[in-house]
Amino acid sequence: MTDVSATPAPSADTPDDPYLWLEEVEGTDALAWVAERNAEATEVLATSERFLRIEAEIREVLDSADKIPGVGLAGDHLYNLWKDAEHERGLWRRTTLEDYRTDDPTWDVLLDLDELSAADGVDWVFHGAQILRTGPLAYRRALVDLSRGGSDADETREFDLVTRTFVAPEVGGFHRPEAKGGMSWVDGDTVFVATADDAATTSGYPRRARLLRRGQELADATVVFEGEDTDLAVSAHHDRTEGFERDWVSRALTFWTDELFLLTDDGPEKIDVPDSAEAGAYREWLLVEPREDWTVTAGLPAGEESRTYPAGSLLAGDLDAYRAGSRDLAVLFAPTPTTALVGATWTRHHLVVNVLDDVKNRLEVLTPPATGAEGIVDGGAGGAARGRRVGPGEWRRRPFPAAPPLGTVSVASVDRAGDSLGGELADGLWMTSSDYLTPTTLSLVTLAADGADAGSVVASEPLKAGPEFFESAGLVSEQHFAVSADGTRVPYFVVRPEDLATDGGAPTLLYAYGGFEISLTPGYSGGLGRAWLNRGGVYVVANIRGGGEYGPTWHQAALKENRPRAYEDLAAVAADLVARGITSPEHLGVQGGSNGGLLAGNMLATYPELFGAVVIQVPLLDMRRYHLLLAGASWMAEYGNPEDPAEWEFIQRFSPYHLVRRDRTYPPVLLTTSTRDDRVHPGHARKFAALLRELGHEVLSYENVEGGHGGASTNAQAAMMGALAYEFLWSRLA
Length: 734
Prior knowledge:
By secondary structure, the chain is of the alpha+beta class.
């Protein structure tokens, strides 16, 4: 294992960057260079029979008519965006729940994105739609977000669900021109809008939110909140829950700190929680998730002078009581050394919490105390409300059906507002379940609203099951733990042939992310199964620090100056795979995208002896200038500020663009990015490829002309980009 401290670090007085011209996203010279690199990569990788077979296999998965159509309920309809070979940009469509239950639902097409793209001469990517649910125009109008080529910047247009046409601004239709930001309904004639075109932060996101009325110019709309240039972003939204209608503003100060405001007649009222905590309200309840230990010394029961709520916990209390000064909160979840909260979903009457225990799911249904005219009351043994106030901790708990041993279960509310299908699914949940070897299933689960069985599952209806896209017989998945440089146990999953010979000869793909408190859990991938597993490859996912698998402390352990811990963790997993005889360095590849691209770049620069190939996708790599490029300034809370000499001192030690050397031996590299990525600048990948070429190292790079940060906008593009990576790995590792 390479000693990070022994790696020569560049001076903070970095010479002028010779490849700055490659940061001109659509510069003539830059695009000509990109075209040359694309042609080279295509010639080397995209002409073999294996590449063509892999591309076709992935495309068949993506275009399959048997894949599960994901849906959301609004009114009497389920809405879905569908892509296949005939509709590469997609159909926005709807059906009924009754029809969806059948094997062949009848779909009502609302918007054909391919037709719209042809008519407008723009490669539109559907970014979602918000359907109006109140007033005379309820379920007749929607706000549709459209992105040019898949970029984060998009525009919003009002859409008529009856006529299947956009409502032109000239006749009063709402429209937000292309920019980073968003628009959301307040009522049929009013929206909240925040757009970077109006006022932008240094990160390129909106810093001002307005209340816009139909027919009004944006400049004339009421400003409901304005942040500072140095904030990350500002947004506003309306909670339409009957009896609890409220307007909220979220002010993101950094990626990990924000403020929540309730809009009142007297102006914005800040909800007084720590800036590092996440807070939100539903009906009468306030939920708080502190990222750091939080000690309160006021608003507690008599005789209690202070209380500390642990980082990573989930807290609940009455919102109005909290606003009045109470800090007596129920601890709904408290982390342990092996557990972390990864989600909490409200239905009308219950809260479903999703916990990881050593990266394995466990769900629980929590039912809050009832609220009546006398306040929080308990029905007692006889079931009748007696007006007795109960403590904030007296929430009822019920276990949820067990998750697969090495799989993932997630739930989402169907209709917590109770304003669709007559409210029959107000306590309904969409439940998805899968693992590495089992196709995803979608079920409709209904919880008992109240009574002695409140929170129990009264119905669980399997709705859809994905097809088996690859042969899983003879494959096994398992979990192991490696020991990192500082003694930390790091979990990882392995998917391999059951009869794998432990002679170190198996082509193995190691994937990780390690940032932004994002957890990697098992899931089914037909493309991976066909392109890699069914060809004899081993697949490994590492749950390294920087992620959220063990809560905020696991994430914070790899922040800023501690970022190299994530890389030490991944190096430990790589070494453990070799020690187990699963693979050897010449047969081990590493892959990562975005922050994971920075991870893969660091594995190349710092641990090259551990790998036989490296795939780096839509990456950050130049950490000297990342904060100056597109949304980069928004990530300084994660990585640090290069303008601060003290912080550049540690940042430069994980900046791959400044670490690679001519006189070191590196495994071959494939870099991919997108011209339309307006989140992580394509200049990172371009400049790193150019530098590696100059230093005489083996590198290929390919830049998709569209796709945004996802790297691809259509199934055809996704299949091609995936096949490039798999062909590169097979050609180097087999």
